[in-house]
Amino acid sequence: MALRGPKVWLWRWRRNPLKRRADRVEAWVVLGVWSLTAFVGMLAGTTVSRSVEDGLARERVEWRPLVARLDERAPGTNSENGGVSRTEQVWAKATWTAVDGSAHSGQLRVPAGSAAGTSVTVWTDPEGRQVTRPVTESQAHVRAFLIGSVAGIGAAALPLVGGRALRRRLERLRMDQWDAEWSRFGPMWGRTTG
Question: Is Transmembrane helix one of the keywords (predicted)?
Fold first, then answer.
């Protein structure tokens, strides 16, 4: 690693008679990598965010609540805790009829001790399969933002890591050139160490 002085803004772009070709290449590499990192991160983040938001909006439109009936009494009982009723949720088997008229059954979360035949809301997709309740529009915005942010950061890491590897390679080449020149001109100054 080379010795570094105090940070100076845009030092790579200043005129300097000691600047080598490798220094100019590194300046362009840094500019290109940061530009590519910002572009790729923003593109991936917005693309994924829009895709997630569109998918969640489609779910809100396509998924429908239906009424299901419990096949049997739900296990457990409702408990009273100091005069306050606390309803525990348990799994129980229920059946429902899809929009197309086909019969379906599955396990649903219901209050403990619910009687057989109790009506319960079940969310289904267009084929009548049981799904979770779709997220609200505000929840969809938050979820799309978070997933898009993670995707953008992950995609931006690729050019950043590639640029860092390229800069290491340039640094190694610059040090090798410096060693070669030092070994050629160092002895002209008189004494050598070693």
Answer: yes
Tokens of 119: 């009506």
Helix, coil or strand: residue 130 = strand
What residues have CB less than 8 Å from 35, skipping those under 6 apart? none
Q: Where are the domains of the chain?
A: 23-59+138-183, 65-75+88-125
3-class SS of residue 69: strand
Torsions phi, psi of 105, nearest 5?
-145, 160
- CA–CA separation, 22 and 10 (whole Å): 16
- Give the DSSP letter of residue 88: P
pTM of the entire predicted model: 0.68
Q: Which helix (H) or strand (E) holds 10?
A: none
The 10 Å CB-count burial string (b at 16+, else e) for 128-157 is bebeeebbeeeebeeebeebbeebbeebbe
Tokens of 28: 């362009």
